[in-house]
């Protein structure tokens, strides 16, 4: 594949004066942020190229050569966006199209394995091209750059290969890219890059205390809670011992395709519901024993912020999938997203001096989207209050004036919440019965009541499946597509509009928050974590709530409520201010108590 020829694009790209392919090479600084070495630009139609080294980039005040009527193409645009923002902070946002994201959109629901999230080399291969470099060479150059053992000329030659490959990818898929949707997705990537570069502020003292004591903490809990002896003296989990236990107990246990027992967290939670004697083991595994704290410590910058890849559009429904990095699909993730860890570990979150960190949630997001898109008048009315309590009242389980603070009322509310949410994604009465711990007959009656209470929604949810199977495609309210095949699950289709609509609303919120100057730290499913100056906190929180409400109304067509879920003001960390009844609060207090009362012996700092 040569970069010496001029290439063409379909007429849909004609309103862009120039189409620039861009790629940066960079090291990583003490804060886990890109430290740029070089940039390569390749103009798609003319083949004009520019290669700039670090000193040349630092001497400019804006992204060079890119005009207001141009578009920038990158594969994966998150890193390139962070590099541009770091080099030219406050400069005008370029129009961005991410070929990685657009290729995922074009193949969503069809691709598997490495094709599902294709590296640039894999993208070229998928589209019938021959990459100019091998994966081994790419990994070699990454190692050289990260270690500082490189020559300028070889870095710049390597830098050029990515723009050449990106141009080939665009040449193959350009005609199929919906420009308006692609630019909207690029706008989100640019806005999210600002959040990824900021990260979540952390109390480094507490984080490193946990790292220093982690192995003794694990030993403490394993010795206390491993009632079945599933861990050995080296604190390693034994699958053989679990196999023997399952056989001895006669438990029904799901297995992976390889035949080994499935011990994912979601499976263990389900098994603990079925077999209550497993609950202590399930808590042990999920909260402490299998937690690799080193992955969190690897995300911590010297400035006290935890940063890792937020991976936009990585799921079928286009939600983010924050997690550790993998190079070309090889190796294991060495970092982890703080908010994906057990809730007790969020206790380390701590804003910088003079700042307040806040988590804001959409209230009943999925129910609201289902109500708005289906047009069910009863569900629309209930979604604007407490939909779970209203459903309980309509089902005759509680009186209309019931107070959810009453424990009996709250239990009925929880049952109806589980039923309503489970029904959104097509859970059967058997699955619902298992989740609620009730009879199949009761679960069936509850779902039948839901269908009677919200008949328009119930019919709409079935129609969504039928229409998607007829069209061989289903699309989010703001244009994220999923191909439908004979193997696409009906539950995926039934829940798709709600999940993808929620992702649409989150993207709109992040974009608008960025444009309003609000400092987003991280998105999480149906919530945003943001930092505010202490003296502007209340006004800015109100603005962000308005942004989120308007975003949801754009997706669902009906008003939305938001809720301030967490507030942490410096000098406190989240572990200091949580109520004892908050999720994770007791575990945090217990573990920090073990450390600070000297009940666990410190180990050499290894982080886990």
What is the secondary structure topology, with strand pairs?
Elements: E1 19-28, E2 34-43, E3 49-53, H1 54-58, E4 71-74, H2 77-87, E5 95-98, H3 99-107, H4 120-126, H5 135-147, H6 152-173, H7 179-198, E6 200-201, H8 204-225, H9 239-249, H10 265-274, H11 279-289, H12 293-297, E7 305-306, E8 355-362, H13 365-374, H14 377-383, H15 387-394, H16 407-424, H17 429-436, H18 440-453, H19 455-471, E9 473-475, E10 481-483, H20 490-515, E11 519-524, E12 527-533, H21 537-556, E13 562-569, H22 574-577, H23 585-596
Parallel strand pairs: 1-4, 4-5
Antiparallel strand pairs: 1-2, 2-3, 6-7, 8-12, 8-13, 9-10, 11-12
Structural class by secondary-structure content = alpha+beta
Overall mean pLDDT score?
93
CATH topology of the largest domain: Nucleotidyltransferase, domain 5
CATH architecture classification of the largest domain: 2-Layer Sandwich
Which word captures the global form? globular
Q: Can you characterise this structure?
A:
With 608 residues, the chain is α+β, with helices and mostly antiparallel strands. The protein has 4 domains: 188 residues, Ribonuclease H-like superfamily/Ribonuclease H (Nucleotidyltransferase, domain 5, 2-Layer Sandwich), CATH 3.30.420.10; 91 residues, no CATH class; 151 residues, Alpha-Beta Plaits (2-Layer Sandwich); 136 residues, 5' to 3' exonuclease, C-terminal subdomain (DNA polymerase, domain 1, Orthogonal Bundle), CATH 1.10.150.20. 48% of the residues lie in helices and 12% in strands. It has a 5-stranded mixed β-sheet. Strand 2 and strand 3 form a beta hairpin. It is globular. About 1% of the residues have low confidence.
């Amino acid at each position: 594949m040569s970069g010496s020829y001029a290439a063409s694009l379909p007429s849909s790209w004609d309103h862009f004066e120039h189409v620039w392919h861009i790629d940066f090479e960079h090291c990583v600084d003490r804060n886990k942020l890109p430290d740029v070495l070089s940039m390569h630009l390749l103009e798609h139609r003319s083949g004009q190229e520019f290669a700039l080294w670090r000193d040349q980039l630092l001497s400019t005040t804006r992204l060079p050569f890119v005009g207001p009527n141009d578009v920038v193409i990158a594969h994966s645009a998150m890193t390139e966006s962070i590099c541009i923002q770091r080099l030219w902070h406050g400069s005008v946002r370029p129009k961005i199209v991410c070929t990685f994201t657009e290729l995922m959109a074009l193949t969503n629901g069809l691709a598997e394995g490495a094709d599902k999230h294709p590296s640039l080399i894999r993208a070229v291969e998928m589209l019938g091209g021959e990459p100019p470099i091998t994966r081994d060479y790419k990994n070699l150059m990454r190692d050289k750059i990260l270690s500082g053992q490189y020559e300028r000329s070889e870095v710049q030659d390597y830098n050029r290969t990515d723009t050449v490959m990106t141009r080939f990818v665009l040449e193959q898929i350009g005609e199929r890219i919906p420009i308006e949707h692609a630019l909207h997705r690029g706008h989100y990537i640019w806005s999210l890059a600002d959040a990824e570069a900021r990260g979540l502020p952390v109390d480094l003292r507490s984080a490193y205390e946990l790292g220093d004591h982690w192995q003794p903490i694990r030993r403490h809990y394993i010795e206390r809670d491993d009632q079945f002896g599933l861990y050995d003296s080296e604190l390693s989990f034994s699958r053989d011992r679990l196999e023997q236990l399952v056989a001895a107990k006669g438990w029904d246990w799901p297995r992976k395709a390889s035949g080994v027992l499935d011990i994912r967290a979601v499976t263990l939670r389900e098994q603990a519901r079925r077999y209550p004697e497993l609950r202590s083991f399930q808590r042990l595994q999920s909260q402490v024993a299998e937690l690799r704290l080193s992955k969190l410590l690897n995300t911590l910058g010297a400035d006290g912020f935890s940063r890792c890849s937020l991976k936009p559009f990585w799921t079928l429904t286009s939600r983010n999938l924050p997690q550790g990095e993998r190079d070309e699909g090889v190796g294991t993730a060495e970092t982890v997203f703080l908010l994906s860890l057990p809730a007790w570990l969020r206790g380390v979150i701590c804003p910088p001096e003079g700042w307040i960190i806040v988590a804001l949630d959409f209230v009943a997001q999925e129910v609201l989207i289902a109500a708005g898109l289906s047009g069910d008048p009863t569900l629309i009315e209930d979604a604007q209050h407490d939909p779970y309590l209203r459903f309980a009242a309509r089902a005759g389980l509680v009186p209309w004036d019931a107070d959810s603070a009453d424990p009996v009322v709250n239990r009925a509310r929880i049952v109806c919440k589980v039923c309503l949410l489970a029904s959104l994604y097509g859970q059967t009465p058997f699955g619902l019965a298992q989740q609620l711990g009730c009879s199949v007959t009761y679960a069936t009656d509850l779902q039948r009541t839901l269908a009677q209470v919200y008949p328009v929604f119930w019919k709409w949810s079935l129609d969504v499946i039928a229409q998607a199977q007829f069209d061989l495609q289903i699309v989010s309210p703001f244009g994220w597509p999923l191909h439908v095949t004979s193997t696409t699950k009906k539950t995926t289709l039934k829940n798709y509009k709600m999940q993808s609509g929620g992702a649409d609303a989150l993207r709109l919120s992040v974009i608008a928050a960025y444009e309003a100057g609000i400092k987003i730290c991280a998105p999480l499913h149906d919530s945003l974590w943001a930092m505010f100056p202490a003296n502007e906190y209340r006004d800015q929180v109100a603005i962000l709530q308005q942004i989120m409400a308007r975003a949801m109304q754009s997706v669902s067509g009906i008003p939305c409520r938001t809720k301030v879920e967490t507030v942490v003001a410096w000098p406190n960390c989240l572990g200091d201010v949580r109520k004892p009844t908050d999720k994770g609060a007791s575990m945090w207090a217990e573990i920090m108590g073990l450390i600070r009362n000297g009940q666990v012996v410190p180990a050499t700092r290894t982080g886990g």
